[in-house]
Amino acid sequence: FKQDPGICCPLVLTAARFGKGTYFAVTARYSTDYSPPSNGKCYMFLAYVLAGDYMVGNSTLSVPSYRSDNSNVRYNSTVDSESKPSMYVTYRDAQAYPAYLITFT
């Protein structure tokens, strides 16, 4: 299980609270803090994300841990909360598809 470069790798190395992968917020409101204006406009991707089986992440993870029910299979992604995730972290490019580029002011 190798870590893919991801959609946005330079950002993951500076703030990897739930794992060293690519972060996706459930709500656009959270993401607006990470979309500084450029020429008076902000940009954000709306992406389809395949979370699969997930676990609560931590800052030391560069890949998800092995599942407890099968020691040969890893979780697919990590989250901030198992009961109600607001943030998903993926570790492979194929887990996310940027569907739309949203421009706003």
Describe the structure.
By secondary structure, this protein is mainly β. The protein is built from 2 helices and 6 strands. The chain has helices at residues 9-12, 28-31; strands spanning 22-25, 42-49, 54-56, 77-79, 87-90, 96-104. Strands 1-5-4-3 form a 4-stranded mixed beta sheet. A two-stranded antiparallel sheet has the order 2-6.
Taken in chain order, the helices and strands follow as HEHEEEEE
Shape field = elongated
How big a fraction of the residues is strand?
25-35%
**Which segments are poorly predicted (pLDDT under 50) over 5 or more consecutive residues?**
1-6, 8-14
Radius of gyration: 14 Å
Q: Largest sheet, order of strands side by side?
A: 1-5-4-3
Number of helices: 2
* Helix/sheet category: mainly beta
Give the averaged pLDDT, no decimals: 84
Number of strands: 6
Helix content: under 10%
